[in-house]
Amino acid sequence: MSVATNSVHKQMVQTQDDINPQDNPKAHQKNSQEASQKTSQNAGSSVTDSTNLIQRMAVIVVGVLVAFILMTWGVHAMQMSDPYIRNVLALTGDAARGHDIFQLNCAVCHGLEAAGEVGPDLHGVSDRKSQVALIQQVISGKTPPMPQFQPNAKDMADLLDYLETL
Ligand code: HEC
User: Fold this and answer.
1) Does residue 10 register a pLDDT over 70?
2) Ligand 1 atom closest to Cα of 149?
3) Is 112 a pocket residue for ligand 1 (Cβ < 6 Å)?
4) Are the C-beta atoms of 67 and 74 separated by less than 8 Å?
């Protein structure tokens, strides 16, 4: 008998909660699990619901941030483990020599003084791109029609130094 009463009560509570969760805070607490499921369908229907939502959103935001930091760090570590890039960065570039190399290899597209032709104007490019990104731009061939270059480390260091003077 008591079981039956209980289930009747429960059903009544659920029904009330279904109609308007704000009218019955106690029932709302009992059914907090159901309530939190409803949160996604009916966001902010009560204070508890929106607190739950904010907490969950905070967890997601922190998760995304941690993933982002790990990825950035991972990419950086990978780039630094590339012996070619490490060699280039260890050398002291000569911008004048880099200018000559640029005029022979790059000027067709970027213009003799890097002001842009087919390829974009490269002035201020080192403000937009890191040293590693600049090296990769030259050696990767990932942005056609710009071809993939394979300069030796010294030539690349000189080119890099020239690009940084722009
Ligand atoms: C065949 C034409 C061509 C040649 C040769 C060429 N580039 Fe490019 N370059 C491009 C084009 C086109 C882009 C734009 C690519 C994109 O982002 O889609 C570009 C982009 C770049 C960028 C990035 C610019 C930015 O604003 O992000 C750099 C740096 C660059 N080139 C340097 C060089 C250097 C150094 C050389 C010579 C070793 C060279 N390029 C040779 C066509 C060329």
Assistant:
1) no
2) 38
3) no
4) no
- Kindly state if the Cβ of 129 falls inside 6 Å of ligand 1: yes
Give the Cα separation of 25 and 19 in Å (integer): 13
Instruction: Give the separation between CA 69 and CA 64, rounded to whole angstroms.
Output: 9
Span 21-63, pLDDT tens digits: 455 455 445 445 544 454 445 444 567 788 888 899 999 999 9
163 within 8 A of 125, measured Cβ to Cβ: yes
Give me the CATH code for the 82-165 domain, please.
1.10.760.10
Cα separation, 123 vs 110, in Å, equals 10
Q: What is the pLDDT of residue 35?
A: 46
Which of the four pLDDT bands, split at 50, 70 and 90, describes residue 73?
A: confident
Per domain, the residue ranges of the chain are 2-79, 82-165
110 lines ligand 1 (CB under 6 A): yes
